[in-house]
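Order emerges. For instance:

***
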Amino acid sequence: MRKVVHITTVHNPFDNRIFHRECKTLAAAGYEVVLLAEHSSDESHENLSIRALPSADGRLARMSFGVWRAFRMAFAERADLYHFHDPELIPAGLLLRLLGKRVIYDIHEDNLTAIRQREYLPAWLRVLIAKTFALTETGASYFFHVILAERYYAERFPRGETILNYARFPDLDEAQLAARPRAEHPRLIYTGNVKDYRGAHHHARLLDHLPDAEVFLVGRCDPDLAANLQQRADPSRFHLDGVDTYVPHERIVDYYLRERWTAGLALFPPSPHTLRKELTKLFEYMAYGIPILCSNFPNLREIVEKPHCGLCVDPDNPAEAAEAVRYLWDHPEQARQMGENGREAARTTYNWETQAKKLLNFYAGII
């Protein structure tokens, strides 16, 4: 049995892409899978093992001592292949290569533009770090096999294999979805990390234009941002689940199944970091038959408007977004059909099963 080690110092051990998609797929295909991640203790799940990395005391400690600990624990596993998920682990990956190991770098983010979104850094320093890191990352990538989570990353990494972040298609009884109750007023859901650049304020301010609506943001949210959002929104109509804590995917699924949501939100403001992304949450909304309300970026319009599974609006125009919500609420049959269209598109095209085959073929080509 071939042994593979996945390594992350940033992501939760039960991260959707790492644990629920890639590691589970590999374990089901017969690989011995070990996942190194910050966790309270070692444990086993569904034929794969989690090895707990000690929690680092702060970002700098994680990026120095934490990376060294991760390298030592990974090397001690004596695996056939190593697969790391965070740019700060590039030094560990290079050390493994120097020791003759096969190594995959899984690029989850457009790190060049992501660094420029780091609000805790001065703007001038963000630009300097982004440019320096981009040169380092591009150069280092030639020593690794590379996996890309977005199509456009291939412009920087033409050798990379694109493994997209499509959602697993849920094995559900269609009658269960159809039986979800409809609320007495519009109720909107957003899932995933709650951040300003991911539209946190855009989602909250919808309530200013929809006096009878409720908004639910489900995902990790920084306490300072949470306080800011809660201060400006009516607490009876604005709900945050995940303040300073990770929200397990199972709880997100519970949200999807509890009712017929008016829309799944993804009103990301335009920026170099967001304009070209294929948002994973869209594929989850589709898989669970939830109509989509998202930004009118060209790539998102291709995903949403072609199968007629939602509406795309100017994210900086809350009145237009509110009008779209009102349309979905006032036309329940059309909204239901959008949900069904999205589910069919997820069943046939936008599902992890299509990417799992690519992942297994990629591994087979290396090992």
In short: The mean pLDDT is 94. The chain has 14 helices and 14 strands.
